[in-house]
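Q: Convert this sequence to structure tokens.
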Amino acid sequence: MNLVAAVVALALIEFFVFGMLVGRARQTYDVPAPAIAGHPVFDRYMRVHQNTMEQLVIFVPAMWLFATYVSAGVAAALGLLFVIGRVVYLRGYVQDPSKRSVGFAISAIPQMILMLGSVIGAVVAWIR
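A:
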């Protein structure tokens, strides 16, 4: 479970860094607070940060549940794939929003596995 905790911490650090990138884009593209839209590139950074937060709400509990009921090692590996996928998503989305699909898939597929595995693992544990 230590590796799972480390991967969750890594995902949270990544989210924090994405927030810092939003702040930097706010300054670079002169989008004063509290505005949440302005220059198209700022908007992309802001959307990546928001979408990552939306995904973390699913990812973190699914990862812990999967680690508890299925396998901590597999959960950690899937978690790393999620973190990598978010970086790919950021790079693609900021460059051109139509290029976000690969990064989204790289992070969404592990989430689906974590969620489904959690449900199956919990049900199997309950039945036993």
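The chain has a mean pLDDT of 97.
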